Amino acid sequence: MEAEKSFAKSFLNSLSQKPIRYRDDYSLGLSSLSQIPPEMYQQRFQLPERCRERSCVDRKDEIYVHLKSLRGSKIDINIMSYKDETILNIKEKILKTLEVDLSQIKLLNKGKVQSDMKHISEILEPEQKQLMFHVMIMEKKQSEENNEFSLKTCDESIINKNSEILNLQLDSLFWQDLRSFLLTKLDINVCDKVYNIFKDAYTSKMNL
């Protein structure tokens, strides 16, 4: 009899040490909720250290970007960007607002056209949190047939209205726009040479 008792005790002790397994559809009864210690459900959830660091870095890397048209006030857009974003990312953000093709948008900073793959961090000065770009909308590329037609029309108009062109007075804004356009196609050194050729040719014609 004593052997049976000791076996029963050891068997029950071994059972109490094993974890209790519940069925997949088991639900905890409401009566047992009062058994949960208050500190368990009153404890506030805290972000892991890495998440807190990342959120601080994100706020630190935010850049306020102001985009406006080169002339007039047709375009005036404010967006948020990040230092690791590129010029292409900014173009994509304003694409729906401008309602033009991506290839038509040119962004200028300090009079120089910025390439699509350039990062915002490459343009920013130390501790700078704001950035402004001038926006130029280029004409949509035409087919070769349309280009030939436009060239013929242009030649005829130049021949017929040569006297009017000679009397045309071009203001300083025209020359600013011309230089900005040339910057979208040429390197700055080549741009200055071509710009001076245009201006010298115009000046010599006006002095005839």
TrEMBL record:
Residues 63-122 form the Ubiquitin-like domain. This is Ubiquitin-like domain-containing protein. Coiled coil: none annotated. It comes from Pneumocystis wakefieldiae.
